Amino acid sequence: MLELHRVTRRFGDKTAVDNVSLVVGEGEMVGIIGASGAGKSTLLRMINRLADVSDGKIVYSGRTISALKGAELRSWQRDCAMIFQQFNLVPRLDVITNVMLGRLNGRNPVLNLLQIFTPDEQLEALKALERLDIAQTAMQWAQTLSGGQQQRVAIARALMQDPKMILADEPIASLDPRNAQIVMDSLRDINSEGITVITNLHTLDTARAYCDRIIGMSAGRVVFDGTPEQLTTDVARTIYGADGLKEAFSEAMTSTAIAPLRLPRTPTNAQQAP
Ligand SMILES: Nc1ncnc2c1ncn2[C@@H]1O[C@H](COP(=O)(O)OP(=O)(O)OP(=O)(O)O)[C@@H](O)[C@H]1O
User: Fold this and answer.
1) What element of type H or E holds 50?
2) Where on the phi/psi map is residue 8: left (φ > 0), alpha (ψ -120 to 50), or beta?
3) How many domains does the chain have?
4) Is the dihedral of CA 205, 211, 212, 217 positive or negative?
5) Which GO terms describe its molecular function (predicted)?
6) What local confidence, expressed as pLDDT, does residue 155 receive?
7) What's the confidence (pLDDT) of residue 247?
8) Within a domain: residue 57?
9) Does ligand 1 lie within 6 Å of residue 34's CB atom?
10) What backbone torsions phi and psi does residue 255 show, to the nearest 5 degrees?
11) What is the pLDDT of residue 258?
12) % helix / strand / coil in the chain, to the nearest 5?
């Protein structure tokens, strides 16, 4: 279980995340929505420890992860893999090596430098690519792939970390509707196997279609935490403001406008928000 206790992050005078308290259970699929600048990325980055908290604490399974250092911090960052809008692959490396780099954290640095991977690691990387349905691209340079394929490689790389949790920061913001759907279906699929997924999303329709629980942020604060059904237009207005609401809905037309392929719910991922 992930717990955020009165977490705040300030940048100078600016409070990006303001006194946020949350509990996320194992196996939940949570969407975080909000207008640009609401604090969504900063929140995810603090969970992964790419950013430090200014106040408050973050606890996972009884461990205060906001205070971890050194090897313990690296181990936590393996447990909670991060996926970004811009994929963050190495463009002139083949896909399978990009995926195996998911293992970097915790391997012998000399082997990493020489890019020497064991047959087991190669097999595991291929399996991860197969799971994302892109094994046929294994030997191509990452930069030759479409955006949607690159994001699937990034997800395969995250899986190589054998994570307990995947944090996705606007994973479909750069993708066309078809690829956005494929990437969201992949995240959903992974979640159905028990991995907690917390994803920032710009658009309401995607959050509604794919997440069991939606958290709405505005000006650094959590202003909504509930099910898709509870996310009424009035609530959306509180999250986005009257002007932003129009944008949130119209942007939806360019995100996952294609109907998602809903997977059957499993006991692990069918949890409701507390
Ligand atoms: N490194 C930083 N230095 C200064 N200010 C920052 C930094 N990172 C974020 N901020 C500020 O904190 C606020 C929240 O930013 P954040 O990126 O978390 O919002 P967001 O909801 O993810 O927005 P977007 O959807 O545009 O990515 C913004 O006002 C932003 O300018």
Assistant:
1) none
2) beta
3) 1
4) negative
5) ABC-type phosphonate transporter activity; ATP binding; ATP hydrolysis activity
6) 94
7) 66
8) no
9) yes
10) -100, -110
11) 44
12) 40, 25, 35
CATH for 184: 3.40.50.300
Chain-wide mean pLDDT for the chain? 87
Cβ neighbors of 79 (< 8 A, separation 6 or more) are 60, 161, 163, 164, 165
Residue of the CA atom closest to atom 10 of ligand 1: 16
Retrieve residue 93's tokens.
């490396």
Residue scoring higher pLDDT (234 or 246): 234
Neighbour order of strands in the sheet with 29-33: 80-84, 165-169, 196-200, 29-33, 213-218, 221-226
For residue 169, what are the domain limits?
27-38+80-252
**pLDDT tens digits for range 127-152:** 999 988 899 999 999 999 999 999 99
CA-34 nearest atom, ligand 1 = 21
176 in any annotated domain: yes
Considering the domain boundaries, does residue 47 fall inside one?
Answer: no
User: Is residue 127 in a domain?
Assistant: yes
Residue with the two structure tokens 């969504």: 40
Per DSSP bridges, beta strands 29-33 and 196-200 are parallel
- Ligand 1 touching residue 9 (CB < 6 A): no
Q: How far is CA 177 from CA 111, 125, 214, in A?
A: 39, 27, 21
* 3 alpha carbon – ligand 1 mean position (Å): 22
